[in-house]
Design goal:
Elements: H1 6-9, E1 11-12, E2 21-25, E3 49-50, E4 53-54, E5 59-60, E6 70-88, E7 99-105, E8 119-126, E9 132-136, E10 143-151, E11 155-156, E12 158-165, E13 178-179, E14 188-192, E15 216-217, E16 227-245, E17 256-262, H2 272-276, E18 280-287, E19 293-296, E20 305-314, E21 318-319, E22 321-328
Antiparallel strand pairs: 1-12, 2-6, 3-4, 5-11, 6-9, 6-10, 6-12, 7-8, 7-10, 13-22, 14-16, 15-21, 16-19, 16-20, 16-22, 17-18, 17-20
């Protein structure tokens, strides 16, 4: 199934491993609100029931017998700029809401109070059962909370919130070495020539990969050449060290990796693949091994501030994490 561009160029901000949590719901009688942001794809288990009825993999409220509607509140791990959503009703057929809307706000509380300035980001939108609903909607300001309104009741399997984290950099941050491409520092995927077994965004996630599916992995290459990807740093900076982790990739790790980089002043994400072929090499071709952390310092050519990095893997395969260590540029 083809998905919109924003699902590949941005990360899922509503990911528990990035600190997101479901903090409140008006009702979750049939299915726990926490399942709404479970990173795993929803499943349907025939014949599975609990004390309240049929077990469903998502958030589901009881049948409403009064006016009004149900809602659920998600707190992001840190402020983010939202670019789009996937409201997923997979496996909800006779119990999905006819419509939904989404509000956003910024608050320091787990559950924003009555004085919260909620702003509608997604107007009431018709939903279908057992379907993905991709909605492009950009927040003009960083937000910390989302309120998913279901009209009037029912169940949603998953909510994915695509965007990038907003960092309010402090003067002290410019003195310290950080991971310039980490998702929590505003890094984001741009494009990969192939993501058959694992998406590019995974390599920016915190911690080590939990399994082979928690990385970027391409299909087996049956033609000359090599696979590649482009990532954007969270802030312009100078790359001084590189860490490549092939955790869990044992029979399918790339034989080698190289990196190119540039300070991109103009253009669009779509124009980058052509330009990137001629970017300056900052890490010449280095061998990789299975299920291991590879650290590179002496081999890195520090060329000054850059904004984007091209990752070349030879000839194909998967890597779990990429860390681009360096300092922020004050330019």
């Amino acid at each position: 199934m083809s998905t919109p561009d924003f699902t590949r160029r941005f990360i899922n901000l509503a990911s528990p491993r990035l600190g997101a949590v479901v903090t409140a719901a008006t009702d979750d009688f049939f299915a726990d609100k926490a399942r709404l942001i479970d990173p795993a794809d929803p499943v349907f288990i025939v014949g599975k029931y609990d004390d309240n009825g049929k077990w469903m993999d998502g958030w589901e409220s009881r049948r409403k017998r009064t006016t009004g509607h149900d809602h659920c509140i998600i707190k992001l791990g840190q402020p983010g700029i939202i670019e789009g959503f996937n409201i997923d009703t997979s496996h909800f057929t006779g119990n999905f809401p006819p419509a939904a809307s989404i509000d956003v706000c910024s608050s320091d509380a787990d559950v924003p109070g009555s004085d919260a300035d909620w702003q509608e980001l997604v107007a009431p939108t018709d939903l279908n059962g057992d379907s993905h609903h991709y909605i492009e909607a950009r927040s003009e300001k960083p937000c910390t909370h989302l309120r998913l309104n279901i009209l009037p009741d029912g169940g949603i399997a998953r909510l994915r919130v695509y965007g990038s984290f907003y960092k309010n950099w402090q003067p002290a941050d410019y003195e310290n070495e950080i991971d310039l491409v980490a998702a929590e520092n505003g890094g984001r995927p741009i494009v990969a020539n192939n993501e058959h077994f694992g998406i590019l965004a995974n390599i920016m996630a915190p911690g080590r990969g939990i399994n082979m599916g928690d990385g970027w992995e391409t299909r087996r290459r049956r033609e000359p050449g090599n696979d590649w990807a482009i990532v954007a740093l969270g802030h312009k900076g100078s790359v001084e060290g590189v860490v490549v982790d092939t955790a869990h990739f044992k029979g399918n790790f790339p034989s080698a990796i190289s990196l190119q980089a540039a300070c991109v002043e103009t253009g669009t994400d779509t124009s980058l693949p052509v330009q990137s072929q001629f970017w300056q090499e900052i890490l010449p071709k280095q061998p990789l091994t299975a299920d291991a952390i590879h650290e590179f310092r002496e081999a890195v050519d520090v060329i000054g501030p850059v904004t984007h990095v091209r990752v070349n893997i030879y000839p194909d395969g998967g890597i779990s994490r990429l860390r681009l260590l360096g300092k922020l540029s004050a330019e």
